[in-house]
Amino acid sequence: MTQQLDTRTRLIEATIDAINVGGEASVRVHNVAEIAEVREPSVYHFFKNRKELVDVAQAERYRRSYIEMFLPFRAVVEMATNAQEFENALRQLFAAVARIERYEARATRINVWGSAQSSKHLAEVVNQVNEEVSGQFGALIADCQQKGWIRKDLDPTMLGLWAMGQINARNMVELNSEKFDLAAWDQVSIESILATFKPT
Predict the structure, then answer these.
(1) Cα–Cα distances in Å, from 148 out to 88, 90, 144?
(2) Which of 57, 86, 102, 144 would staple 150 via disulfide (CB 3.0–4.6 Å)?
(3) If you ran DSSP here, which 8-state letter would residue 37 be given?
(4) Whole-structure pTM over 0.90, yes or no?
């Protein structure tokens, strides 16, 4: 079983690398198998076809793009001892996600959403990831609501999803950064989130 998991993981990693370099169209099963150091028929032991392999790899790219952002944020929030430290953690999160280095993670999510529009399987997996991440974010928000740092009249999971949407919406201005002021967008976004979260 461990060997099967290792082989499946290697196939997914090779597919992710191919997508990162050349997009979905660049994924060739024989190349993925070669990179994963297995024979091509082994790919079909783990994935029923190329599409499923690509969908699973896309879903993993999507999941990682959120986890890489959420885990450090959770660590900072869990260290907060008062509302001001929590606000500082939120400001740190949004400053971090606005960095140019995070553009690729946001672009990955947009790319996967586009692919999910024509793939029922990928859409289901993306929804599972959204539920997983928003559930974790929602639990963190619920804890902060209990501490009095976030208003209690809004659903914590929906607040988590909304905040995730704010992060992803930055792509709208990044696509036309020559015309739009990214710093102004960042300020509007974080101030909107803080105003929404602020206890009434």
Answers:
(1) 15, 15, 6
(2) 144
(3) T
(4) no
Which of 59, 33, 31, 24 has the alpha carbon at shortest distance from 131?
A: 59
Q: Look up residue 51 and give its two tokens.
A: 């599409």
CA dihedral over 103, 98, 190, 154, signed as positive or negative = positive
> Of 109, 105, 97, whose CA–CA distance to 59 is shortest?
109
Please choose, from the candidates 42, 137, 39, the residue with its C-alpha nearest in 3D space to the C-alpha of residue 90. Answer: 137
Residue 80 to residue 140: CA distance in whole angstroms: 12
Which domains are assigned to the chain? Answer: 1-47 (1.10.10), 58-197 (1.10.357.10)
162-181 residue pLDDT tens: 988 888 888 888 888 889 99
